[in-house]
Amino acid sequence: MSTIHDFPIFAAGEWIKGNPLPVINPYDGSIVGNAFLADDTVYEMAVIKAKESQTKMALLSSHDKYTALMHIASRLREELETLSLILSREAAKPLKYARAEVQRSIQTFIVAAEESKRLPREYIALDWTPIGEKREGLIKYFPSGIVAGISPFNFPLNLAVHKIAPAIAAGCPIVLKPASSTPLSSLFLAKIIAETALPKGAVSILPMNRDFADRMVTDTRFSLLSFTGSPEVGWPMKNKAGKKKTVLELGGNAAVIISSSVKVEEVIPKCIQGAFAYQGQICIHAQRFFVHEKHMPVFLDMFLEATSRLVIGAPDDDKTDFTCMIDNKNAERVEEWIHQAESEGAEILMRPNRAGNLVHPTVIVNARKGMNVYDEEVFGPVITVTPFSDFDEAVLMVNDSRFGLQAGVFTDSQTEIDKAFHELEVGSVILNDVPTLRFDHMPYGGVKDSGLGREGVKYAMMDMLEPRILVK
User: Fold this and answer.
1) What would the 3-class secondary structure string for 104-143 be?
2) Is 249 a known active-site residue?
3) Long-range contacts of 132-140 (CB under 8 A, 24+ apart)
4) Marked catalytic residue, from 249, 377, 416, 455
5) CATH class of the region 255-439
């Protein structure tokens, strides 16, 4: 990739160059590729063409959608290495994680292809009352309309795919705004989508500034807004969205409980990955660790030793485990939060040593409520470790948060498993693994400030479909 390539806007099947948007590698400042910002004319063209394609999309057979989705999956597999490098360089994502993201995107399209063949429908008897005698109903689900998708920088391909693939499977046109810092992987995907027989207007991928993102939120031509990002941005969007459905995936400060019953040495590798994969810039980053008091000394010793072995380097190096954050602004914020915690009594066991936008893995003990590193979503390579004496106490500490996305629970006790599943206020409980685990066909989303609605192909599709009943 020594040559810098242009990645034009993909607007309703047309390739357009607008105002230049150089995409910078956060690690070394080099230009990864040139994208372009959509203007008012391009935006209007994409939305109008999406509206025009609505009937054609709704009339596509399951076979048509399956064929298109499987073609995309197959071509992604062929382009895995090229796309992994693009993704690694634009997002400063270690290459091993970039490859995993492309592989997940392939799986997401395959799942969508399968789900396109089993759109829900049901028969209902209506003779429950005398007036309903000799009546019956057929319920069928129809595409709800145009989807407005807004995806973030941290999984620039797969989180875009989690909006695009269900929309195609449901028969809904979609206009997607990728993050301005990481648009290249989704624009590369657009080249593959353009190879299919989907109607023009079915998919548009428009890098845009925030003003146009706000316009998507309020534009009444969209039937659904699907947003992945921060609570500070997402909840105000819901208030502005008007009558359209809104799905929000807004992150959290995911917790891990390590019970007295587990063997600590067996959980350390998963905990390291959950804590520091992609520098903690993951909505389900394992941030708050609650460790049974009898395990605390051993857990900390083993965790710190394993952390010290992480290979820090360039994102596109196969050996790299850990690299820089997305930008200096976020690195400075994380460093400030660490200093705040220390000034208020927390102990830093592994110091950050920030160099530009590289913040080294950081482990904090004696953190408590009132500290940003404990209360808020750090979205960086920082964890807190807190002891507990009994499982009930751990559950209460996990729930004592405004967030509730996912939680990981390491335990061999069926009683604790049942308690965790029934009492933890989260969208998903991950047993004997970290909350950073996600399968692309499972319902994914949170409660409280962590969001509204669910992603995961089948569950995203349900928000893109409307039931209609034929009474006869």
Assistant:
1) HHHHHHHHHHHHCCCCCEEEEECCCCHHHCCCEEEEEEEE
2) yes
3) 135/471, 135/472, 136/471, 136/472, 137/469, 137/470, 137/471, 137/472, 138/469, 138/470, 138/472, 139/467, 139/468, 139/469, 139/470, 140/467, 140/468, 140/469, 140/470
4) 249
5) alpha beta
pLDDT in tens, 46-105: 999 999 999 999 999 999 999 999 999 999 999 999 999 999 999 999 999 999 999 999
Every domain of the chain and the residues it spans? 5-250+450-471, 255-439
- Please state which of the four CATH numbers 3.40.50.300, 3.90.76.10, 3.40.605.10, 3.40.50.80 is assigned to the domain occupying 5-250+450-471: 3.40.605.10
Residues in the chain: 472
Q: Is residue 265 flagged as an active site residue?
A: no
Structure tokens at 267: 């959980």
Neighbours of 219 (CB within 10 A): 18
Closest residue by Cα to residue 255 from 226, 280, 289 = 289
The structure tokens listed for 150 are 């807004």
Phi–psi pair at 443, nearest 5 degrees? -65, 130
**Which residue in the list 172, 271, 283, 324 is annotated as catalytic?**
283
Q: Give the model's confidence band at 213: pLDDT under 50 very low, under 70 low, under 90 confident, else very high.
A: confident
